[in-house]
Each structure stands twice: as structure tokens, then as C-alpha cells.
Amino acid sequence: MSHSSHQIERNSLAFAIEKNVDVHTQKCYQCGKCSAGCPVATEMDMPPSYVMRLLQTENQAHDENILQSQSIWLCISCEMCLSRCPMEIDIPSMMDFLRQRSIKQKMVNPKAKNIVAFHKSFLNTIKYTGRLYELGLIIDYKRRSLNMLQDITLAPKMISRGKLHFIPEMIKGTPQISGIFKKTSKKEV
Amino acid sequence: MKIGIYPGCSLNGSARDYNESVFAIAKVFDIELVQIPDWNCCGATAAHNLNKELSLALPARILALAEQNGLDEVLVPCAACYSRLVVTQHELKVEPEIKNRIKKVIELDYRGTTKILNVIEWLDKYIIPGIEEKLVLPFKHKVACYYGCLLVRPNKVLNYDRSEDPQTMDEVMRKIGADPIYFPYKTECCGAGFSVSRTDIVSKLSGKIIEDAEHRGAEFMIVACPMCHSNLDMRRPDINQYFKTKFTLPILFVTQALGLAVGLSPKEVGLQRHFVPVNIDS
Ligand code: SF4
Ligand code: SF4
Fold first, then answer.
1. 3-state DSSP percent of chain B in helix, strand and coil, to 5
2. Residue B95 is part of which domain span?
3. Could you tell me if B7 and B109 lie in one domain?
4. Do A22 and A94 share a structural domain?
5. Which ipTM did the prediction report?
6. What is the CATH classification number for the domain harbouring B71?
7. Per the CB < 8 Å rule, is B234 touching A158?
8. Cα–Cα dist B102/B246, whole Å
9. A177 CB less than 6 Å from ligand 2?
């Protein structure tokens, strides 16, 4: 589907976004509604509408700035931008793509390392048991992030309320889950 | 009557209060909730952030198992899991090519026929029609109904007619005697999956939501998502520290409020597991 006569530069990030997640960055007319409603815009180094504008320039330096930004990791996938965008531009899907590309190209912003570590710990836990094991997740995350003391008082309070299990639940289909992880791990983005 | 349930990981662990209240209500209304056998984690935020195909395959396995076990309707109380399952079902429906690929990945047949219900839809369909005769202790309180993100968005897929000011939870609460306040923060984000990796952001966003509800005179905030609950309840000490204040507003799952209204005890709906104390005196 073509929405404008402009031919996008084939090496640009905008082109990759269009090809992979069918988001057409040229449709953005910079109204700013996405950034106005984004709950984390004030924490971001570039709010969503600014990311859109940089993408439209199809400039390699700008593309790298985006992949190295904190913004793509601070996006919490709340979908507010998409629900308010007059052009129905799917920024959340685009952010998913940008995160995956950023990891692939080893461009992850150092300040986002805890967020990435948490996601990795999360997937690591379910890969081996099929279900999330919260205590295992916390331990794996502490190891990755080296935040040993964080939430040290929270765990006992969770335990006394019956909210933290000591033993992971293994599902019967654990081998299938590992198979799913294996088969989906080599995807190009 | 029998219907399927996908509890998801939170209800199995840190949100077991939610789980207890869902099952307790079902019992009162003679509904048998059958867990999808051998269900797995839906992949949550982590999967769609890091690996798109994985984020479709994990929910697809869950839905395939529901089909295999003849569970045509499945209740998904966690709003985050609900979102992953519905979005996956939608994506596989509109992209047959992806569907075929995912079927190979999960090595199971998948048709996409399961009717997925969020907790409000379930209450609406199976509980509210019979509520009048079971209502013994109307929940006569001012409440702020907090929907968060994932029950209402993406609105195109979920078909919420009022994504900025949804009313379905407010309606359910009215039916049990409550007085839902006007609450502009009802679909703002609580910080979602950043509870551990960016507690500061969760404290700020969740704190603003609580501040507004308290300011408008709510006695309780009502939620339908374990992630929202844990950010607003379990993270309260962090929130209070961030705002240098002492917010005391208790956070109830919609099923806990409803459970109390049909005569279940605070313990039967899991209130003793909360971090912010809940004092009910009606
Ligand atoms: S809301 Fe849509 S059109 Fe407006 S700036 Fe954001 S992406 Fe562009
Ligand atoms: S989905 Fe991401 S970019 Fe869009 S409003 Fe939410 S946090 Fe901001």
C-alpha cells in the first residue's frame, strides 16, 4: 500500500519500519498529540513525535540517534499515542521494532540497560519453566543488573502475604516452550 | 455451567488475591471455571519488546490448548494477558501467512475461534444478570474506576466505543450499589512493567493517579489488572516516598468489591494480602 508518491530511501530506518511493521512514517504531520499524551514523554530524550520527524529525514545519523536513544526503551507500550493519533500511526508497534533493531545492531543506550536486563530475565525465566517464576525473575534480574540491594525489604513482605513462591511451577509442555524459543530466536529484524 | 479460565502468572503468584476473588464469585454464581490445561506464560511486555514472533507464539499456544480442550469461552482476568491474547488472535486472523508460520512454531493446530473475555465482560455476561437476588451488602462507597491501558487499548482491536472515558466498570460498580466518581485519570498509564527496572517512573505515574482519585473524594480505587494493582498497592511505600506524602487510598480488584457485596468475607476475597490496609465499614 502506498500512501505518498515519495520513494523512501531503501537504506533508511523508515524503509525498514515500513517493510517490517507496515508503519508509514511520512503520514505523520507533526501535530504532537502523541507526545502530549505520552506518559513518559518528559523522561524521554526524544518524545514520540520527534522520533517520527527524525525518521522522515531518512538521514543515517538521525537513524542512529534513534536506535541509541533512551526513548525507545522508556516507551511502556501504553498505546495512548496510537489511540489519539489522527493518522492512526502505530507508534507502539514501531517502538517494538526499533527496540529489536537496536539490540541487533548493538546500539542499546547504556542508561536503558536495567530495562533490557529485566526483559531478558523475564524471558529467561519462562524459557525454562513455561510460567513466570517471580522469585527466579528477581534473582536473575539482580544478577544481570547488579542491583543487589534493591527491594530487599519487599520480598519478605510479599512472602508473608503469600505472594511469592519458593518453588517454580514446571509445566508439562516445557520442552515445547523451549522449542518455541529456539524456533523464534533467529528472526531477522 | 462451565467456562475456561486463563489465570496467567500474576494470578498464580503476586496477585493471588485477585484469583481468590474471581474463583469465590464464580462459586457463588455456580460457574465452574476450568483452567486451560498446561497453560504457559503469555510473554507479557518482555516478549513483544524483544521478539515479535515469540510474542505471538506464546499466546497462540495458550489459545490452541483452549481449542483442543473444547473451551470455547475463556475468561482472562489479567488485563495484560487479555491484551496479549486478543492482539495475537487479531494479528493471526488478519495475517494468514503469519498464522501458518506460528502454527509450525507451536506445533499445534490453531483456528482462532476462542471467545476471549476480560473480567468486565465476564461479569457483565454471567454475574450481573443475577446480581440483584444475591446482593446482600451493597457496596455503598465512592469509588474511582481505574481501567489503565490494556483493557481499552488498542481501541481498534478491542472495540471500546469510549476509549478515553470507558463506562463498563463504572456500570458494574453501580449495579452493586457504589457511586463511581468522575475520574479523568481512568485510562492513564500506571507505569506498567517498569515496577522493578524503573520504580521511579512507576512511583510518579501511579502517584498522580492516586492523588487525583483522593482529591476527588474516592474511598476506594477499583482495578481490573494485577499489574496496576501491584503498582498502586505494593509500590505504595515508593509512591509515598516519591511524593513525600501519605496516600492511604485502598486499591480493590473489581471482583473483591463485588465479592464483598454478595456476602463473601474479606478473607475469602483475599483482602488480607494487600499492602495498603483496607477497612470496610458499611
Ligand atoms: S499524533 Fe500522529 S500525526 Fe500527530 S505527531 Fe504523533 S505520529 Fe504524527
Ligand atoms: S505507547 Fe510508548 S510512545 Fe506511545 S504513548 Fe505509550 S509510552 Fe508513549
1. 55, 10, 40
2. 2-117
3. yes
4. yes
5. 0.89
6. 1.20.1050.140
7. yes
8. 49
9. no
What predicted TM-score, i.e. pTM, was given to this entire model? 0.92
- Torsion over CA: A122, A125, A126, A127 (sign): positive
Determine, yes or no, domain membership for A83.
yes
Atom of ligand 1 at shortest range from CA of A48: 6
State whether A88 and A42 are in the same domain: yes
Q: Do residue A163 and residue B14 have CB atoms under 8 angstroms apart?
A: yes
Does a structural domain hold residue B124? no
* HSE (side-chain half, CA atoms, 13 Å) at B270: 27
Structural domain total, chain B:
2
Using a CB-CB distance cutoff of 8 angstroms, which residues of chain B are in contact with residue A76?
A: 45, 189, 191-194, 201
pLDDT confidence of A159, banded at 50, 70, 90? confident
Q: B153 alpha carbon to ligand 2 midpoint, in Å?
A: 12
- Residue B35 β-bridge partners: B5
Interface check for A156 against chain B (CB to CB < 8 A): the answer is no
pLDDT tens string B208-241: 999 999 999 999 999 999 999 999 999 999 999 9
Mean residue pLDDT across chain A: 88
The grid coordinates listed for B27 are 462459586
Chain pair A-B, CB pairs under 8 angstroms: 162
Q: A20 with A189: CB under 8 angstroms?
A: yes
| Residue A84 lies in domain | 13-108
In tens, the pLDDT along A28-86 reads 999 999 999 999 999 999 999 999 999 999 999 999 999 999 999 999 999 999 999 99
Helix (H, G, I), strand (E, B) or coil at B4: strand
